[in-house]
Design a protein that fits this description.
mainly alpha; about 65% helix; two-stranded antiparallel sheet; about 475 residues; 15 helices
């Protein structure tokens, strides 16, 4: 169909290109247009200026360019003159707006009548004395500062003060991804910091990998910023547990382990992971009970899924299972405690549920059973702590097996590539798994996450509030 035509292609970009088609004009060109449409060709209108002689068109375009340059210089000079005239007024307006910003944030918290102004708000109790001293130094007129504890009906309005330490900042940022603790609730940042660092090291224990993480974090500190300390802490934990496991870049023959090589006794590692999980859940449940007591909710503190009766049921069942494992019997006292706690929990669910008798019994039974299975599944989730420590060693063995198939340079290239693979891929997976244990087995049990963060009133220009 394109016979008798010349095609010139230029300015290609990906799957698109500009194509010039030159040919003799035909009276009936519907067929050629149909072919071009099928190929996705879009015709561009040639400007009328380009129909003239090239030299004439070039001269006209250059003249237009000079006119535009002159107009741009004129506009720039006008703007500079205007800027010079208004600079002082604009800077003064900026200062006024910055000073007025706190009053916008205050909204209805400030009320004024004549020379008297009343400002109400929330402030951390530890900051009251310092605030009073700052007001005395800043205000020439007399003032009265009074403070009281929030009333029970106000607790949902009170913001939570979250300390901002340099080391805890990256961990606090991860906590905020889940939510903000309510006023009076235990701030999970400290617990999260300690347990996350510990679990990362347990699952990724290797001196060489830990030191590499620390070195990489230090070299990339300008990009990581506050998360530099996060990576340094994770690397230090990995290094510590690498010494306990006796592993450096997967080699376990270079020095004697301070504790135990994971693969030397997998069942022991699994039992240690279970013990860690039990301890973790006990602490988390006790914090949950504390939070409910602080809120004045005694019923939930005693009978909730994460209440006192539930933890008694959990511990008694653990004691019974341990008795069966060691002595072959559940134990009478343990059975009595377990049954008593189970019936108490069931009774509370029956009273709490509002429904017909049959539906109430079904709901109460399901929720009680869910409480017991929830503790069981959460405990078993911590087996992944040991599983990843074993997996770390298994990956190193796989790398060495592949390296032993090669000789000379190939052997060492495989060792290096394999360690990089373990460091990047498994390191990322371990981080995700540790976060999962914190969020789902930890925070979800005691941490509502629907609180308000305390943000002090301050000037955008850097002044204190």
């Amino acid at each position: 169909m394109l016979a008798g035509y010349l095609l010139f292609t230029h300015a290609e970009s990906g799957d698109n290109s500009h194509t010039v088609i030159v040919g003799a004009r035909q009276e009936d060109n519907r067929e050629i247009i149909s072919v071009l449409d099928t190929a996705g060709f879009r015709a561009l209108t040639i400007p009328s200026q380009l129909r003239e002689e090239p030299d004439r068109v070039r001269t006209e375009l250059q003249a237009q360019q000079r006119a535009l340059d002159e107009q741009r210089r004129s506009e720039s000079a006008s703007m500079s003159l205007c800027s010079a005239e208004l600079r002082e007024r604009l800077e003064q307006s900026q200062r006024i707006l910055l000073m007025a910003e706190p009053f916008v944030h205050l909204r209805g918290a400030a009320r004024s009548t004549g020379a008297l102004t009343i400002v109400t708000g929330w402030i951390p109790s530890r900051e009251i004395r310092r605030t009073e001293q700052a007001l005395k130094a800043a205000l020439a007129n007399p003032f009265l500062l009074s403070a009281r504890a929030p009333r029970p009906e106000e607790r949902h309005l009170v913001p939570s003060y979250l300390p901002k330490g340099r080391f805890s900042q990256p961990f606090a940022t991860l906590v905020k991804q889940y939510g903000i603790p309510r006023y009076g609730e235990v701030d999970p940042t400290a617990i999260f910091t300690l347990t996350f660092i510990a679990m990362f090291g347990m699952m990724f224990g290797d001196i060489g990998h830990g030191l590499t993480i620390m070195l990489g974090a230090w070299l990339a500190r300008s990009r990581l910023k506050s998360f530099t300390l996060f990576a340094l802490a994770a690397g230090a934990s990995s290094t510590l547990f690498g010494a306990l496991y006796g592993s450096i870049f997967g080699y376990e023959e270079l020095f004697h382990a301070l504790w135990i090589p994971p693969l030397s006794d997998p069942l022991y590692m699994l039992s240690m992971a279970l013990a860690w999980g039990v301890g973790f859940l006990i602490i988390i449940t006790l914090i949950s009970i504390h939070n409910r007591l602080v809120e004045g909710d005694l019923h939930r503190a005693l009978f909730d899924t994460n209440g006192l009766v539930s933890i008694i049921l959990y511990l008694s069942v653990l004691g019974g299972v341990y008795g069966i494992y060691t002595q072959g019997a559940y134990g009478v006292a343990t059975a009595v405690i377990s049954i008593g706690a189970l019936l108490t929990l069931l009774g509370f669910k029956l009273i709490e549920t509002q429904a017909s008798p049959g539906e109430r019994m079904l709901v109460a039974f399901i929720e009680t059973f869910e409480t017991l299975t929830g503790y069981t599944s959460n405990t078993l989730s911590f087996l992944r702590v040991a599983a990843f420590s074993l997996n770390h060693v298994a990956l190193a063995i796989a790398v060495f097996t592949l390296a032993d198939m090669l000789e000379g340079t190939g052997h060492w290239l495989m060792i290096i590539a394999g360690n990089l693979f373990i460091l990047i891929l498994e390191g990322a997976i371990v981080t995700i798994q540790a976060l999962r244990l914190e969020y789902y087995e930890g925070f979800s049990r005691f941490f509502s996450g629907d609180g308000l963060e305390f943000k002090p009133l301050k000037l955008s220009g850097g002044g204190g509030g």
